Amino acid sequence: MTQRTALVTGGTGGIGTAIVRYLARQGHRVATNYRDPARADAWRAAIAQEGIEVAMVQGDVSDPASCEAMVRELESKLGAVEILVNNAGITRDTTFHKMSYQQWTDVVNTNLNACFNVTRPVIDGMRGRKWGRIVQISSINGQKGQYGQANYAAAKAGMHGFTISLAQENAKFGITVNTVSPGYVATDMVMAVPEEVREKIVAQIPVGRLGKPEEIAHAVAFLTGEEAAWITGTNLAINGGHYMGW
Ligand code: CAA
Questions:
Q1: pLDDT band for position 1 (50/70/90)?
Q2: What pLDDT sits at residue 197?
Q3: Can you give the pLDDT at residue 201?
Q4: How far apart are the CA of 24 and the centre of ligand 1, in A?
Q5: What are the φ/ψ torsions at residue 184 (nearest 5 degrees)?
Q6: Res. 246: pLDDT tops 80
């Protein structure tokens, strides 16, 4: 296989860690960003125990200047970014009539505006080299909406609008752009949902359980592979049958 340089934003999170691990085990050079140095050091030490070395750069995906600096630093360490996974995301769940402007903008900035902030500094290089793979990690709730997530669902739905526009603009440059929409996966983010609410959600999943982070990582590896050159602009739902669009 061809070894590539991959940037996975939010790589220290639940799904992010699984994606980093999967791409690294495939032989790619993998990088992620972090905000809190102490947390980053602990995470790096843990993943190093598995024999995986990850380049880590400080950067806040909600801040355009920080992302530009982060990408340039990463390029000087590992080389140009060839695979980008826009994975970093947060929740600020509350019903809309109680939602503050801060809760709205925090989620839109980190989940959606980050796609601009991180992709903009890498796109020219991908176009110049005529090869690239970009994957947005969206959510089932961007597809179906969710009680208590007007901010999150709006941002996650926006990510796929971004995907299908970029896919059209960059197809002739050998760049594919796709979305993966995970359902409820066993991560800290989902475990933070109150237990009684979570139990009702799990009861709606035909497969009968939460997803595993590796089940999302597997799809990202597939979409970022050399052989996936003809798959672009798609939104791959991975949700145990919880929501079946067509
Ligand atoms: N449909 C209809 N009614 C619902 C409902 C639903 N899905 N969920 C809650 N309600 C109702 C309750 O039954 C209750 O009704 P009564 O007042 O008549 O008893 C009412 O809404 C409660 O409303 P409140 O505004 O008082 O809500 P709250 O402050 O107690 O909390 C909430 C609401 C924050 C939305 C909470 O229910 C919650 O956390 N829900 C889970 C949201 C969720 O799924 N988040 C996903 C996080 S993980 C993630 O985002 C990853 C991913 O991509 C999948």
A1: confident
A2: 95
A3: 97
A4: 37
A5: -80, 110
A6: no
C-alpha distances in Å from residue 115, one per residue of 1, 29, 63, 184: 28, 21, 11, 22
What's CA 60's distance to the chain center, in Å? Answer: 14
Burial of 88 (C-beta count, 10 Å sphere; 0-12/13-18/19+): buried
Give the domain range for residue 138.
5-238
Active site residues: 152
The residue whose CA is least distant from atom 22 of ligand 1 is 95
Task: Specify if 243 maps to a domain.
Answer: no
Atom of ligand 1 nearest to the CA of 98: 25
For the chain, what is the domain count?
1
Give the dihedral sign, CA 59/62/66/72. Answer: positive
Pocket perturbation via mutation, ligand 1, pick of 144, 147, 188, 199 by most ligand atoms within 8 A of CB: 147
CA of 219 to the centre of ligand 1 (A): 29
DSSP-assigned beta bridge partners for residue 132: 175
Please give the distance, rounded to the nearest whole angstrom, from the Cα atom of residue 148 to the centre of ligand 1: 5
Domain harbouring 177, CATH code: 3.40.50.720
On whether residue 244 sits in a domain, the answer given is no
Residue 246 lies in a domain: no
